Every structure is written in C-alpha cells, then in structure tokens.
Amino acid sequence: MKIEEINHPELKNHINMIYMHGENENRKAIEKTEAEIKDYIRDSYFIISTEDGKPVKIPYANDGEYIVPVFTDEHEYEMGMQYFSFNVMDENKDYVIEKLDYFKKLKEDPNFLGYIVNIARVSYIINTSLL
C-alpha cells in the first residue's frame, strides 16, 4: 500500500462530530460516534509515525504517559512532519502503513494513552478503550 492511497474522510467526519457533540454536551451522541470510530478503525490502515522501526512516543504528562501520532492521509502526514520540525522532533522520523494493532505491545503498556490523529491540526486521541 502506498501513502497516497491512505485517505480517511469518514474518520475525519467522525472526529468533527465528536467535537460538535461535545460543544452541545450530548454524551449519548459522543458514545455512539465513538462506537462508530471503534468499528471504523478496526480494519483500516493508517500512516503511523516511526523512528528506528518503533512508534514515535510523544510525552503527554509528567509521569511517563505518552501518545503515538498517526495520520489519516499524505497531506496530514506532511503537516505532522512540519509540526515535528517546529518542535525539533523531526530527525530520523519515518512511517509505516499498518492497522493500529500493528504495535501490539503498545496496548499492554499502562503508560500508552492512545493514538493522536493528525497532530498538526485539531486532533483527536483514539484512546485505548477504542482499540
């Protein structure tokens, strides 16, 4: 699979809906949309940022917790790499195109909070309960 073949407009729509439902404080709609996201990502391939063959881990708190960036398409990946360069994190970065369960050990790590989708824009964390 090539990077230009990866495209997830449906996931982007789900993420936008989550934000809209959050603004309206509609918990039931958020839960429904999260269930749709869970179903969607199960068989989908994403661009997962790597370094030396391992997922890039971005610290999320002061106690060792982290998130891993994934991207919905080539444009978002390029924007993410610009974000990394602004934050002096762009060296040795590469990517794989895989399902989110590719790095199976991540889910077993209690410090892994989830995948952050499209880090350079308004992003969304796919937390471990959706994996």
Description:
By secondary structure, the protein is an alpha+beta fold. It has one domain. 37% of the residues lie in helices and 24% in strands. Strands 1, 2, 3, 4, 5, 6 and 7 form a 7-stranded mixed beta sheet that branches. Strand 3 and strand 4 form a beta hairpin. Helix 1 packs antiparallel against helix 2. It starts with 8 loop residues before the first helix and ends with a strand.
Keywords:
single chain; 131 residues; alpha+beta; 7-stranded mixed sheet; 4 helices; 7 strands; 37% helix; globular
Could you give the topology of this structure?
Layout lengths: L8 H15 L3 H16 L3 E6 L2 E2 L2 E2 L6 E6 L2 H13 L6 E6 L5 H5 L3 E6 L6 E4 L4
Parallel strand pairs: 4-6
Antiparallel strand pairs: 1-2, 1-4, 1-5, 3-4, 6-7
How does the overall form come out from the CA principal axes? globular
Overall mean pLDDT: 90
Q: Could you estimate the helical fraction of the residues in percent?
A: 25-40%
Element order: H for helix, E for strand: HHEEEEHEHEE
Q: What class would the helix/strand composition place it in?
A: alpha+beta
Terminal Cα separation, in Å? 22 Å
- Strand content bin: 15-25%
- What does the oligomeric state look like here? single chain
Number of strands: 7
* Biggest β-sheet strands, sense, barrel: 7 strands, mixed
Give the count of structural domains.
Answer: 1
- Poorly predicted runs: none
Number of helices: 4
Radius of gyration: 14 Å
